[in-house]
Amino acid sequence: MNKTAVFPGSFDPFTIGHESIVERALPLFDNIIIAIGYNVQKSGYFSIDQRKKWISKMFENQPKISVTEYSGLTIDFCKQKEANFILRGLRTSADFEYERAIAQMNKAMHYKIETVFLLTLPQHTFISSSVVREVIKYKADASLFLPKIIADDLKNIN
Amino acid sequence: MNKTAVFPGSFDPFTIGHESIVERALPLFDNIIIAIGYNVQKSGYFSIDQRKKWISKMFENQPKISVTEYSGLTIDFCKQKEANFILRGLRTSADFEYERAIAQMNKAMHYKIETVFLLTLPQHTFISSSVVREVIKYKADASLFLPKIIADDLKNIN
Amino acid sequence: MNKTAVFPGSFDPFTIGHESIVERALPLFDNIIIAIGYNVQKSGYFSIDQRKKWISKMFENQPKISVTEYSGLTIDFCKQKEANFILRGLRTSADFEYERAIAQMNKAMHYKIETVFLLTLPQHTFISSSVVREVIKYKADASLFLPKIIADDLKNIN
Amino acid sequence: MNKTAVFPGSFDPFTIGHESIVERALPLFDNIIIAIGYNVQKSGYFSIDQRKKWISKMFENQPKISVTEYSGLTIDFCKQKEANFILRGLRTSADFEYERAIAQMNKAMHYKIETVFLLTLPQHTFISSSVVREVIKYKADASLFLPKIIADDLKNIN
Amino acid sequence: MNKTAVFPGSFDPFTIGHESIVERALPLFDNIIIAIGYNVQKSGYFSIDQRKKWISKMFENQPKISVTEYSGLTIDFCKQKEANFILRGLRTSADFEYERAIAQMNKAMHYKIETVFLLTLPQHTFISSSVVREVIKYKADASLFLPKIIADDLKNIN
Amino acid sequence: MNKTAVFPGSFDPFTIGHESIVERALPLFDNIIIAIGYNVQKSGYFSIDQRKKWISKMFENQPKISVTEYSGLTIDFCKQKEANFILRGLRTSADFEYERAIAQMNKAMHYKIETVFLLTLPQHTFISSSVVREVIKYKADASLFLPKIIADDLKNIN
């Protein structure tokens, strides 16, 4: 059976924390689908297209990784993609409590789905999309927290 | 002295986690008032009327339980109902920190009010109204997480 | 049905935090059994007899309260005393995680046993028997943290 | 080198918890700048002017303390004021996780900035501006949680 | 490359929580080595031989699983077995903090080792070897928390 | 008034995490006393003399820092040294809960004592003396986690 994992998130924007999780999870899975969840009501800071373009470019040489958007419940998306694993990074114990509720809910609704957790690296623990967004909004330099492709692109924009 | 407890919440919707707390707390109190807090600014997902109708029907054969809505501070509602106890369920340590702040605030403002906590059952730990609402919004099956009366009613609606 | 609660602990020594929990729980129950758990292997700092004498004296005018020692599993003691409630105080979220495991274990082994939690008062949050013991060991003044009867007695000893 | 600390917050309103942190931090620093962060999008409950007036009046006899508003990133404000310290109060472990992320982010962006934490007093642990605001909104008495100057002023308003 | 995971623990005794983690992790790995860590100083409750016999019997029909004991650092054992993954179950946020420290330490010492976490099922959250041991010590029935093979064996012993 | 801080710990051994806290705290205080607490009952892994020698050598060119051992309560030691501050590092939320209890206890017993917290750097979060000791015990290389002087010395010993 193919080992396919969905890595869901809003990735607004994708950070070096996300990048590290995907790269370290690669040896575990045959395919990883980076799935950008969107919400019709909330538009986000960067457009879905922009986020997708950035992440696709980052992993364009990695055939095991695909990037797509989705709406609705994550487990419905997993079923549709025939993915039995959800991949998530864990940073803090606050994270943990939240992630546990979501993962247990998913498992209650679809028994075969298993959520697999990797830890963020210590030096990435404090990096979250929401804080990075704040830095970008105030025109400060967020390149320490962003994959090179995104950081370079933002410099050109500003 | 009559032992009256207020069980406050937004119950949008009431879940099997809430149901279990109320049933297990029944032997402790003479009366339990399930108090649906509402906020003039936020309308919620289900109407107050709908929530009240559902909860009332669930406990219609249980004379110790009444259901009502309220706005304003919970302790003011308690005073008005001459209730000396607030009943709350605890699920996680994140819950705990939040509940502790509220309970200590209430006690500081009205010394006689005691908040009594029961634990949610292990299999209910991950169930919260907000996540269940998400499931309902996307037309997925939330009946695992809802009291039978509510689950049946939602099936008829969809 | 009689509402009997067991308040288990090692109470080595009983602190003002324990005292406050018992007093605030009194209106909820018909009887509270303060149950000093002991362990044949570990003798503790104060003798079981000493602990029992202190607690008994504190509540000698309170007919709803009895004091006893026990060994073995708390739920076996509850069954023997026909007590359906276990009373516990909660101080911090570390406490909470530990207490939740014990309470859920107890409920899994004996479904009728319900653990009821009250919060320690904010000003008692940091008081634990183990830290108070440390203070006593070094001959410092622990009377701020101890019921008057115990504090007075310790002054006479020193 | 002058030891200047920035104490940033929205202080909507300033509580006795904030007051205690500032007073206890005074012996550590040569200057403390109480910095009211504002957000063009969110107006807050009390106006920036009102908050500033209250805090200034509280500390008008304390030459080491100044009060100002700022927008943008806290570290940019610190650089502009040549302040190497950020002062923060810690109440709970939920607080801690949040504060740690912010402090580590700040340090990553500006290595010289050190965040110094003091604990709120046990009896202030549950006091937060957001809960106090709730009490004020419902015309209940919040004077237990507010510095005298603010409490008195609010009584005159109501 | 072969995907080999080490599942380290003292397993004194192996519980249904451990069993569930191993079974749910099977689709992820080519081999899982259940590694019983022992400590020359601490003998444990059940002998290493007994623990090994039980676990081996449980998985005797599962060729991907082997059972062995080890002493010393877990990463040294991993290197020796050419295993790049450590498998761990997560129950609570207290667990999480502890597991994170260990996993980050391991990664700092041997960069290629990745710790993969699965969540215990909600109904297993409260089950730990130490509490189960307590139940067994007092001759109470621990069969709810133990794999059938171990539970049956213990009944014969008692 | 002189700003003197006591930095108490068992430092068995002193790690790069401790080193970083002391160095970053230096600008805040006029003197820092690194105080090695010892316990007559527990001898520790390295001798008090060895620990003291290492730490003294590390800071021999730093006149603001002194190193000493002490037994008994930390606040009694502070009073004796006329130190009004206790310096502590915070790593995780588990740490936080423990440190808060100790700090609030100290403040309750001696009102003038203020505990000042700095955060460990993200890359030091997982480093604790107890885990480093484990690494040393098994003859593995702990030099990543130790100040250079200690690491070099241990290599000579092994």
Short description:
The structure is a homohexamer of 158-residue chains. Chain A contains 6 helices and 5 strands; from the N terminus they run E-H-E-H-E-H-E-H-E-H-H. The first copy, chain A, is α/β, with parallel strands linked by helices.
Structural account:
The structure is a homohexamer of 158-residue chains. The first copy, chain A, has 158 residues and is α/β, with parallel strands linked by helices. Chain A has a single domain, classed as Rossmann fold (3-Layer(aba) Sandwich). Helix content of chain A is 41%, strand content 20%. Chain A has six helices and five strands. A five-stranded parallel beta sheet of chain A has the order 3-2-1-4-5, with helices on both faces. In chain A, helix 1 links the parallel strand 1 and strand 2. The first copy, chain A, starts with a strand and ends with a helix. The model of chain A has no long low-confidence stretch (mean pLDDT 94). At the B-E interface, loops of B face loops of E.
Largest two-chain interface: A-E, 23 and 23 residues
Distance between the termini of chain A: 47 Å
The second-level CATH architecture of chain A is 3-Layer(aba) Sandwich
Task: Give me the CATH fold name of chain A.
Answer: Rossmann fold
Number of strands of chain A: 5
Strand content of chain A: 15-25%
Parts with pLDDT < 50 across at least 5 consecutive residues of chain A: none
Number of helices of chain A: 6
Q: Can you tell me the CATH class of chain A? A: Alpha Beta
Structural class based on helices, strands and sheet pairing of chain A: alpha/beta
